[in-house]
């Protein structure tokens, strides 16, 4: 059965009805006093219960507000983390691109260096062949220059390795089947006309 709450005036009327029905004066004062104390206790409990309910409602509102603020802060932090991740990803991509560019430049420079060295070696070999051609081809056609060309060949490539090491400009000894060597003449000096 549901409880019906009575207003303070209704309580007093109910209390009065109880007192009238109780019948006796001595006991009536005692019953009135007990009823009054019960009513006062009930009123104090109701006030305390109202305060607790009000505090609980305020606490619930504060909890809901704090939860909403925490969710907003979490969403904001997640957005900041995503922004930071994007920035870091862009930085890594730029770094990888720079690394690839540097590696490509190193390969290109290495290939260029190798090509220049190879070209230099080929040019030196071609110059050596051209010098040999210059020395050997006219020797077949012109007997007058044969002695001069033989002397240039001897000066440029001595037969005896020990002669190349010596520091004194000495004439190389003639081989047993060769004619005597020409006198030492500087390659820079013009050739003398021979009779």
Describe the structure.
- The chain is an all-alpha fold.
- It contains four helices and no strands.
- Helix 1 packs antiparallel against helix 2 and helix 2 runs antiparallel to helix 3.
- The mean pLDDT is 76.
Features:
195 residues; mainly alpha; 0% strand
Would you tell me the structural class of the helices and strands?
mainly alpha
Q: Got a strand count? A: 0
**CA gyration radius, whole angstroms:** 62 Å
> What is the average of the pLDDT values?
76
Low-confidence stretches: none
**So how many helices?**
4
Shape: rod-shaped
Distance between the termini: 159 Å
Main pleated sheet: none
Query: Into which percentage range does the β-strand content fall?
Result: under 5%
Helical residue percent band? over 70%
Secondary-structure element order, as H and E?
Answer: HHHH
Write the layout of secondary structure elements.
Layout: H1 8-22, H2 25-141, H3 146-156, H4 161-165
Short description:
The protein is built from 4 helices and no strands. It has 195 residues and is mostly helical.
